[in-house]
Amino acid sequence: MNKLRVGLIGGTGMVGQRFACLLKDHPWFEVTLIAASKKSAGLTYEEAVKDRWKMNEPIPEGVKNLIVKDAFDVDEISSMVDFVFCAISLNKEETRLLEEDYAKHEMPVISNNSANRYVQDVPVLIPEINNNHTEIIDIQKKRLGTKRGFISVKPNCSIQSYVPPISALLKYEPETILACTYQAISGAGKTFKECPEILDNVIPYIKGEEEKSENEPLKIWGKIENNKIVNASSPLITTQCIRVPVTDGHLAAVFVNFKTKPSKQEIIDAWENFKAPECALNLPSAPKKFLHYFDEPDRPQTKLDRDFENGMGITMGRLREDKLFQYKFVCLSHNTLRGAAGGGVLSAELLKTQGYLTSK
């Protein structure tokens, strides 16, 4: 099987590094190009990241000697690869325009950025939940005037812990949700060495995170109507997003009311028996078990459980009734795997099986 040629746009940052590691032995995709800012352009990838490599594993041999391109050389890059992952660090407007420029150069873009998440014909994908939203891509292509170029986006990392377990309970019609997320420093692209202010500390503010956490789930649960994705009208979601001193893993404390209140056992059964749609089951990066409930009173724990299913599964625990809400529980996701690069790779795998990613 000939592998698709992949470009990493923003490949020198933490998420770009995670992409490089995840793709080193991928059966369908091969990184053949890395692009970043002008200051890294012209260096080998190893030279560009040597003083800021943040992964626990070494730089993959297959990308060490790639010469880093300037991410804004869209013409050249688009001629050299079959599709790109974008994890570049720019302001939103610059990112939106750059990703659209790649798409208009007939380049499929799988984005890790937030800039295009609110564009109504851009899908925000969690393959196990809203894989049907890929249908909007054909409408997006008509708007862009492209044959193969498009943009697909991965959701914000802060929602990956609680959107999957709530998705398994949609038949009970959740009406109101309060979610407080306790988020790792890697969500800011940092290590402890780069973030001394977090040691012995909790920072109760992450810029822009609460807006994303409250609005993006409604798009994921929305429907395609009149050539756009129309957000779900409920549940009403309120959040607080807090930075805590852990390396990886976003933990959430969730409180929820349902229109039709399920029993505790019905909730646990819905989680444990959740089955992803057939199209998402056998993808190379898909977890064998997407959702897992712990009976132990002190689980999930970030350090112990963030790597469940290679970091692609979601864990829940401490489900109990509440005095103000009907139920409360805690849940956990790995923010740079399921929540970032891994989620992007999984989306690309889905898009390939559906015929949206092809060799030129």
UniProtKB/TrEMBL annotation:
Keywords annotated in UniProt: NADP, Oxidoreductase
Protein source organism: Clostridium acetobutylicum (strain ATCC 824 / DSM 792 / JCM 1419 / IAM 19013 / LMG 5710 / NBRC 13948 / NRRL B-527 / VKM B-1787 / 2291 / W)
Organism ancestry: Bacteria, Bacillati, Bacillota, Clostridia, Eubacteriales
Family label: Belongs to the aspartate-semialdehyde dehydrogenase family.
Matching Pfam families: Semialdhyde_dh, Semialdhyde_dhC
PANTHER family reported in the protein's UniProt record: ASPARTATE-SEMIALDEHYDE DEHYDROGENASE (PTHR46718)
UniProt keyword NADP, yes or no: yes
GO molecular function: aspartate-semialdehyde dehydrogenase activity; NAD binding; NADP binding; protein dimerization activity
Active site: C157, H250
NCBIfam families: asd_EA, PRK08664.1
Protein name: Aspartate-semialdehyde dehydrogenase
